UniProtKB/TrEMBL annotation:
<feature type="compositionally biased region" description="Basic and acidic residues">
    <location>
        <begin position="59"/>
        <end position="78"/>
    </location>
</feature>
<protein>
    <submittedName>
        <fullName>Uncharacterized protein</fullName>
    </submittedName>
</protein>
<feature type="region of interest" description="Disordered">
    <location>
        <begin position="1"/>
        <end position="78"/>
    </location>
</feature>
<feature type="compositionally biased region" description="Polar residues">
    <location>
        <begin position="23"/>
        <end position="33"/>
    </location>
</feature>
Length: 78
C-alpha cells in the first residue's frame, strides 16, 4: 500500500524545470578591434607623457602640453 502512496505522491510533484543556459554577453569582433585600438592609443599617450615629463623635468604648464601631444599622437595613429 505504501508503494502506491509513494508513487502517487511522486507523480503529483512538479517535474523539474529544464536548465536554461543564459547567453553570454560577449564582445563582437568589431568591438574587440575598437577596444584594442583604444588601448594602443592610451599606451602611446602614457609613453609620450612619461617622455615629456622626463625631458622637461616637471616644468610648469606641462599638463596642458601633455594633453595636446597625446591628442596629436592619437590623431596620427588613427
Amino acid at each position: 500500500m505504501k508503494s502506491q502512496e509513494a508513487a502517487f505522491k511522486q507523480s503529483r510533484k512538479p517535474a523539474p524545470k529544464p536548465k536554461i543556459v543564459q547567453p553570454r554577453n560577449t564582445a563582437t569582433p568589431s568591438r574587440v578591434t575598437k577596444n584594442a585600438a583604444r588601448n594602443e592609443r592610451r599606451k602611446v599617450a602614457r609613453k609620450v607623457a612619461s617622455m615629456l615629463k622626463a625631458q622637461k623635468g616637471g616644468v610648469e604648464g606641462e599638463k596642458e602640453n601633455v594633453g595636446k601631444e597625446s591628442a596629436q599622437k592619437e590623431a596620427e595613429e588613427a
